[in-house]
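Hello,

Our lab assistant flagged a job as stuck in the queue for most of the afternoon. It eventually completed. Since we weren't sure the result was trustworthy after the delay, we are filing this so someone can double-check. Below is the sequence as submitted and the structure that was eventually returned. Let us know if re-running is recommended.
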Amino acid sequence: MFGGDGQVIHAKNLINGAWRGGEAPLEIYNPSDLDELVGRYQMAGAAEVEEAFAAARAAQPGWRAQTLEQRSVVLEAIAQAIFARKDELARIMSREGGKTIPDALGEIVRAGNIARFFAGEALRLRGEKVGSVRPGVDVEITREPVGVVGLITPWNFPIAVSLWKLAPALAFGNAVVWKPSEKTPGISVAIAEIVQASGLPAGVFNMLIGAGPDIGAAVVEGADAVSFTGSSATGRKIAVRCAERLVRVQMEMGGKNPQVVLDDADVERAADIATNGAFFQTGQRCTASSRLIVTEGIHDRFVAAVAARVKALKVGNAGDGATQIGPVIDQSQFDKVMGYIEIGRAEAGVPAAGGDLVSAGTRGHFVAPTLFAGTDNTQRINREEVFGPFASVIRVRDYDEALAVANDTDYGLSAGICTSSMKYARDFQANAQAGMVMVNLPTAGVDYHVPFGGRKQSSYGPREQGSYAVEFYTQVKTAYITP
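-- returned structure --
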């Protein structure tokens, strides 16, 4: 079912090791060229959801009984297949999601590394043996799989985020019902084919294509645990329902991430960091630097340097090797970004750079990267997540005000600072209200072997990625034993 350049993907849902039809058709067009049909799919309905959970529940006990090595071998096979197919996968991602080929390749390699990491973690599942306060009694603490895990994943990182949920779920003996974003079904089908060919028993892994309000909601109803990445509004609804059902939930949601730039920073380096964090991958990253908080001594030079870089960015067809910024994902996201540009004009005046449509030779969802200066942290463009190539600059007096403004947000995913002062760097690390802190680095860009997550409305529940993933995908059992 893989689709290369110019090929149309025809795909269904994967249930109990077989490809199944659905209730409704879905067509996906290339956001770089709206005249190009990329794929036709069949979205799942209630019957497919019921069958997927029945298959997962039947298969999970057998998968749990597999040895650690058998689970590790499956994950290593997934990793190897991802690496082997990386060029083909990158073309699929670029055509249906608008990612440039370098961005897509970077994400795919990361996904392969995630699968490989959890192939190792499967072998490192640890327990404890401790003494008891009672004579002649042993105490053993072990970890067991949760059962059937529902995974709901986004379109902006459709393979990396999916693998950092799927890999630990499988590594620790769970079965999976996966609902990927209906905006990027092609790469999801490709992942499903790779997983199916890895030696995993039928029914342990199931994939359902469908819209969030329908299929996503049904997955939440059927799972023993739910891991979700998406909007804060949807996340709150899922959290409420999981609490009502008394099942565990893990959520990664939005961000309005600050990049602080102090007077002692290198202007050119800071401008490079801000441009990368705010605009690359079309700004469609929950870790993007959407608020650039700059002290007054460096403010004007910094704005000029970033504006020059933004104006020089090459916007166009994601499949063009010269393109740096591809299109936004679809019409709804295009309308949202353009709406915030108009809000920005009303709140802050003429943009320092961008704010226009881009002609790229094809009909596509192209938006010029846009930078507003002279903004205030109370304005909507600094309170609400845009999720596009959009950033605003906030002028502050000094470090203390910069830290206060950085923390004055409903979100708390990633926060960055550019400074040559170890004093301010360490203070920011300690006091930034975010799950991740970057010193002289973009707010976007994280390693695959360490925990990922935030605070406030950005995250809820145990951390994702790295060895910390075991906290969500396993449950602890304490056994007392005496002869």
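-- support follow-up --
The delay was a queue issue, not a problem with the job. The result is valid. The chain has 15 helices and 22 strands. The mean pLDDT is 96.
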